[in-house]
Amino acid sequence: MMTLSELKLSHWKVETDTQNIAWLGLDKKETSMNVLSREVLSELETCIDVIEQNTPAGLVIHSKKKSGFIAGADVTEFTSFENEDQVYDYIRFAQGLFERIENLGCPTVALIDGVCLGGGLELALSCRYRIACDEPKTRLGLPEVNLGIHPGFGGTVRVSRLLGVFTGMNLMLSGRPLSAGAARKTGLVDFTTPRRHLYSAARQVLQTTPPKAKPRLVDRLLRLRPFRPLVARLLVRQVAKRVSRKHYPAPYAIIDLWKDYFDDRELMTVKEAKSITKLLISDTAQNLIRVFFLQEKLKAEGKHSDFVAHRVHVIGAGVMGGDIAAWCALKGLRVTLQDQSPERIAPAIKRAHQLFKKRLKKPRLIQQAMDRLIPDTGGLGVKSADVVIEAIFENKEAKQALFKKIEPQMKDTALLTTNTSSIPLAELNVVLKRPERLTGLHFFNPVAKMLLIEIVADSGTDPQCVHAASAFARQIGRLPLPVKSTPGFLVNRILMPYLLEAVELLAEGKSPESIDKAALDFGMKMGPVELADTVGLDICLSVAEILGQHLGLEVPQLLKDKVAAKELGRKTGKGFYTYKAGKLQKARLADDEAQPDIIRERLISRLLNEAMTCLREQVVASADLLDAGIVYGTGFAPFRGGPMHYSEQIGFETQKEHFIELEQEFGNRFHPDAGWDLLKKAS
Ligand code: NAI
Fold first, then answer.
1. Same domain for 364 and 266?
2. Does ligand 1 have an atom closer than 6 angstroms to the CB of 236?
3. Which of 23, 278, 453, 514 is most buried (most C-beta within 10 Å)?
4. What is the 3-state secondary structure (H, E, C) of 381-441?
5. Based on the domain organization, do 26 and 77 belong to the same domain?
6. Is 310 among the residues known to form the active site?
7. pTM, entire model
8. Among protein residues, the one whose CA lies closest to atom 3 of ligand 1
């Protein structure tokens, strides 16, 4: 009979120790992070064949990589299935394998140090015990819903038995990971321990096999057949507040599986496989998987440079500069924040404190972050900064004067950046001795929420500076999108025609509610009218006027009137909507008012057409980067995979015909961009 050590394996390092404990250590070949690929699972199956033949005293599954336990299933394989049967067979194979682990005749432990997500957590759940390293890097979660699917290797079945329904459902429905401590509290892991005790803890648990905690009585009651439909209804109501069943069916499927099949474990497992199969081949999941890879593409933009910043100097402590400085300090950098007076800096420091409190929780960590953020009215930080970020008023002369003053004080190697949203680099850098060093770091508002940063350059910019700026964006946990220094760059430029079309619709007498509903039905995260009110109608108008000059956009009179009347949106309590105590007041839509189809068509078509123009003018390097930027920068329906991908799915020819129809009815702002013909030919 074969022993474990005789197996020839590429991804697993296996051994049986002197206490007859089998150790299966995953070290997936040629990757920095462990994922469960088909090969990894096949090799695991071979190990389990041997273990079943010759039962050891215990089994430990652990990771040989420093980067964590297991990050999940191998997402690259999710797009390679040819048909439904292939998916189903694969899922059933993995489910069967995990069941065999669960049924082994010896105690089993998953030893979790670092990330343990998706399929990785499902594997851990098939072990009798889970021991987690009590370090901040340890994160346990089931993020499958973010990819439009749900756990499929028996996870929905095991989680709903192990944890109370609300805790278990929250884990699966939100996709949010838990820290080791939180996982211990909920019962997802049995023990937490400092890293140095991990291995001895595993041995001890295998030797003593402590009893497992049972779910609380109330949780056992809520699972009973008569209560399940009631609980399910409650859960559905919560999910419906965030996403619709039509656009994101996965969370609803999780609730349905539990409600309909909880009593019959075997049947629930089969249904789980059927359900995930259906979801995985759907457009929603395939597009969300696409967006996942697009995010990887953006991350890769930050890998062309070794640039690392230690000190950052931000000039301008307003809405943007203040929040940018706080964000950098949160991310561990030493930040000096400059403005004209201490009074102007104080509100930014106050907001930073709120942010640190929310994100860091522990007083010691909050204090450390506060210590890293230093008010600097004298601008002393310029000399020692690795990155200088200018975020003063949007005024060319003021910015030029500032650059002229600070350039001689800066370190030679430091990055000089501007957060301008509309002034071309070429107009700002003329005052510099080294104009090629100025790049744009265009953050979005609110800084702490928006993942994207546009890295702005023009033909004269030093590519090394662009790469370093992208690396800096990654250093502070953001996604860099390199764009050309043209008016509005990419995101604002594509958003503006869409927002202006919303104002046209308002001017025609459509209600803000019906316009926003049409956009939400399409899958946008926020309707355009609410978005305009949130950004501020004065800011919208000034961007529209600047962009309008360059792009030939007509600025609707209604927008000008609103600004003249000082109805600026949320901040003044009245814009296109009214706000009571900061809360938006939406009227109920009358049945005959909703004409979502034509409203949606008009809004989205403006956005798609501008996207095409940007691609043709090479504002970004590729259609994929454009899609990534628009999904992360505007909240464009992620399940549609980005504007260019969406257009491709509709068909470029159909798309163009559609624009022609709209042009005939509503005027030449819908005139199809020349790029549609180019793509049509290429496709
Ligand atoms: P803001 O008006 O809130 O803040 C500007 C701050 O700069 C003020 O506190 C002012 O005292 C300070 N300042 C002006 N001249 C200065 C100088 N010479 N030295 C030191 N401090 C000086 O402006 P906001 O909205 O933060 O915008 C700043 C920049 O960010 C602008 O270029 C804007 O276009 C850009 N931006 C704004 C966005 C937004 O949503 N507000 C989004 C993205 C970029």
1. no
2. no
3. 453
4. HHHHCCEEEECCCCCHHHHHHHHHHHHHHCCCCCEEEECCCCCCHHHHHHHCCCHHHEEEE
5. yes
6. no
7. 0.91
8. 318
